[in-house]
Automatic annotation (TrEMBL):
Region (Disordered) location: 485-510
Protein name (record): DUF4055 domain-containing protein
Domain DUF4055: 266-420
Protein's organism: Shinella pollutisoli
Low complexity bias spans: 498-510
Signal sequence bounds: none
Amino acid sequence: MADNTDLLSTSGDYQAMVPYWTMVGTIMHGAAAMRKVPKFLPQFPNESNANYKYRRENAKFTNIYRDIVENLASKPFTKEVRLVNESVPEPIKAVVEDVDGQGNHLHAFATQYFFNGVNSAIDWLLVDHTRLPEGATLADERKMGARPFWVRIAATDMLAVYSAVVAGKEQFVYARMNETYVRRAENGIDEETVSRVRVLVRDPIADEAGHVTDYAPARYEVWEKGSDAGDAWQLIEEGPITIGVIALVPFITGRRDGSSWRVLPPLNDVAELQIEHYQAETNLKMAKEQTAFPMLAGNGITPPMEVYEKDDGTRGQRPVTVPIGPASVLYAPMNDQGQHGQWQYIEPTAASLKFLSDEVDKLERQMREIGRIPLTAGTAGMTQITAMLQSQKVSSAVQAWAWLLKDALEKAFKFTAMWLNINVEPTVFVNTNIAIDIGTDKAPEILRGMRQDGDLSQQTYWEEMRERGVLSQEFEADREIKRLEEELPGDPGDDELAAAMTPPARIAAE
């Protein structure tokens, strides 16, 4: 790769997603960020720059979109994300406790991964490994604390990514990621922004006719460039990826557009309505200000003039600013013919204020309905059936995303096992039993009935009750069996222990 290549350039797929990422990114950063973007609050025709500046700087913004995303993204994490397999090797278990090398548990990492996937429609996970010097032994590796670790890559940092069918399945053959960081100077005070790009690539192998027949094992490159305009890209690190593949795992909540990496965002309509809500809310605020502080008009009154200095240094005349307020007196003197002018206020009518207020409320309802969240306020017009149907919608949408998260995490663990040279495919538990917000969950009662009828084993009964939050996530079946043994007098046999664990037998004995 040439030194003068613009490594920060982006792919066509990336550029197609930029408008959406810019919109939701600005919304997420709140009112201050929204006010800085003129296109989200356009200037009215013939509106002066000063008035527009005032209106934009004082715009009102209620972040309903962020509330919706937070609500949706939190639902699968009421229970801990964890490995299910009891016989998972210890090296894999160690990764669970600190998946990213920064002390974050699998559950904490998955929370961020899921949230950003919902907001951006796609998020990325790279399974990497500590770099080892050539010829390093197992002892050297342990001494260094070398281990696989996960890196979450924001959608906006994945500059370009391409995949191809290799050995009968889709695999990544190229990825370029922005890893720009701030480096502190030697004096410990000054800072410098350093552009860094990581490239992962599997070089194509072509036949004599130039047709690609296969791809070489994966390799990586790391490039850096200083902040000075004349700085060139420098290759600071390169080498093979020993597992031979690019260990990238996308988490997608939108609809992928064909074989490209463009995604149709599931919350695009909600974000668009948030912009419209922002404009309507600001218009309502301005109308209220005009009502509280209406425009004063002088009819039949010649305004006094004052001399002022223009921007170009010349002098001009303009009407004197009229003072208004409780401590001011305005005069409308008669002219030579005995006629006099009059002062009056121009203000919006109550009807216009009500229209604007109703429009703001309507937009908020639309946002929450499209976001598939039942309204917690203003549900008087909704029947119990309607509210429950809305709740079922959010359950089905988030439930589908939770299954996709489970699949993505299991793929990441498969890559982790490859780095550890362990032949295992761990199963990850992600809560896909998204509870309906309105109504009661009769599952525990049904499970108890099945246990009493002998249709469920004690072990399965406990597992199901733990998944539904009736038993804590720390509940362990083996420990509970030991406690039951301790409660029985003497040395209980298997039959006695089974009777103690069976609800009908225990009830009959009583």
